[in-house]
Structure formats: C-alpha cells, structure tokens
Amino acid sequence: MVFVFPEWALAGWWGLFAGTALLLGAAAGYWIAAPPRVVASVMAFGSGVLLSAISFELLDEAFALGGADSSIPGLVAGGLVFTTANVLLARRGAKHRKRSGSALIPQDEFEGSGLAIAAGSVMDGIPESIAIGLTLLGGATVSIPTVLAIFLSNIPEGLSSSAGLKARGWRARSVLLLWAAIAAVSGVASLAGYVLFGHFGPGVNALVLAFAAGGVLAMVADTMIPEAFSEAHSLSGMVTVLGFATSFLLSKLL
Questions:
Q1: What gap in Å lies between CA 98 and CA 159, rounded to an integer?
Q2: Helix (H, G, I), strand (E, B), or coil: what is residue 43?
Q3: Is the dihedral angle over the CA atoms 161, 163, 168, 172 positive or is it negative?
Q4: Helix 172-197 crosses helix 7-31 at what angle (to 10 degrees)?
Q5: Residue 23 in 3-state DSSP?
Q6: So what's the pLDDT on residue 98?
Q7: Looking at residue 111, what is its pLDDT?
Q8: Would you tell me how many other CB atoms lie within 10 Å of the CB of residue 86?
C-alpha cells in the first residue's frame, strides 16, 4: 500500500522547503564569508527565475482562471501593498535586507537593521509562499519553477541578514532559531494559501494569484535586482537572463 500525502500537507511542505533556504543562507552568512559578487550572482539568477515564474506560472494561470478583470486589479493591488509595506520597513532598517556586502551600507544603518530585516523577510515570504500553495489547487502539481525561484531568492537574504545580526552581537543559536521560525512561517503561509482559498471560485483564486504575483514582482524590482547589480554590475543582466531562460524551460518541460 502506497501512502499519498494530502494536498494540504504538500502545500505546507513546499512552502517550508522554500523557506529553509533562509536558514541555509543564514548559517552560511554567520560562519562563511561568501564573496559578495557570488552571492549577488545567485540573486541575479534568482531574479530571472522569479520573473519567469511570475509571467508563465502565476499571472498566466490567474488570467486563465479569471481573465483581465481579476488578474490585473490583483496584480496592481499586490504591488501597491508590498511597496507600501516595503517603504515603512525601509525606514526602520530593512532597505538592504538582500544586500550581500556590508561595505556599501552605512554602518549605523547596517547595525540597526537586523530585526527589521527579519520583518522584511517575513513580508517577502508571505506572497511567495501563498503562491506556492495556490499552484496546488485543483489537484495540480506544485510549480517547480516557482519553488526554485523562491528558494534561490531566499539564500542571499539569509546571508546578509545573519551578518547584520552577528555584528549586533547575536549568537549563532539565536540567529538560526530566528530564521528557522521565519522558514516555518513560510510553510504556514503556503498551507494557508491552499486551505483558505481552496473553496473559492476561479475568480477569487485568480485575484489572489495575481495579488501574490504583484507582491513578488514589486519585491524583485525594489530589492533583488538593485542589490544584485550593486555587486555583480555588468554580469547581473546576463545572469538574470540565464535564470529567466532556466525557469521558462522548466515551466514548459514540467
């Protein structure tokens, strides 16, 4: 007899899996001095993967479910909510939460950004994780490009944030527990996305999918691409293209 996990459990699992990249990045950032250009290249690649996933997984599915009437308002609303929250958190020190090198960050801003970075990471992860849960609605398989994109984007975020917390005197145990909790939030958000919206019609699901896509798109434009360019410079464009191509190919093959 083969045991099959229920879909709600799979939704939580995939959200948790993507969130564990924060924990892995935090551990690496605390004990390993990764070259900023390498981390920025990972972020650029993840940006390309996310852009493709938004276009060909989330927004395309939202349009198929509810048309422009649901997908476009949801997309704009998601971007507006994320941008507003991002501005508020940036004033409290989360502006550079995906920065891979501390040399370009003012020392007072860098040292005061640890908890704000954590709050920003939760904000980033909620629309991403909800999107993962929504891709499982209707008996569909999880969107591998979406999970891969979120996983890759979380690694440099954990790297930079753990460096800031370490500079403020946080011990390794406290840092890892914090990011483990944030990873758990990612799993819960993915589970919630599946459970809360699984009983609604296609119009509502389209709106929520597009809302998540808008939040992720605003996050990529506000934080990931600028921070990747600040370290990788001329390489960031090509690496982003490679990430987009990889995700596009995966979306067609899988």
A1: 8
A2: helix
A3: positive
A4: 160
A5: helix
A6: 56
A7: 45
A8: 21
Q: Which residue pairs, CB below 8 angstroms and at least 24 apart, start in 117-120?
A: 117/93, 117/157, 117/160, 117/161, 117/164, 117/165, 118/161, 118/178, 118/179, 118/182, 119/89, 119/92, 119/94, 120/86, 120/89, 120/94
Please count the residues of the chain.
254
Structure tokens at 174: 């406290």
The segments of the chain whose pLDDT lies below 50 read: 1-2, 102-105, 107-112
Q: Which two tokens stand for residue 134?
A: 């929504």
Task: Locate all alpha helices (DSSP H) within 90-171, ordered by sequence.
Answer: 107-111, 114-134, 144-167
CB 214 within 8 A of CB 79: yes
Report the candidate in 71, 110, 103 with the shortest Cα–Cα distance to residue 207: 71
Q: Nearest 10 degrees: CA dihedral of 81, 86, 89, 91?
A: -120
With beta carbons less than 8 A apart as the criterion, state whether 209 and 74 touch: yes
Per-residue pLDDT tens over the stretch 47-61? 888 899 888 888 988
Quote the CA–CA distance of 220 and 75 in Å, as a whole number.
Answer: 14
**174 to each of 23, 99, 162, 184, how far by Cα in Å?**
12, 21, 10, 15
Q: Model pTM?
A: 0.79
Cα-flanking dihedrals φ and ψ of residue 198, to 5°? -70, -20
* Paired tokens of 15: 């959200």
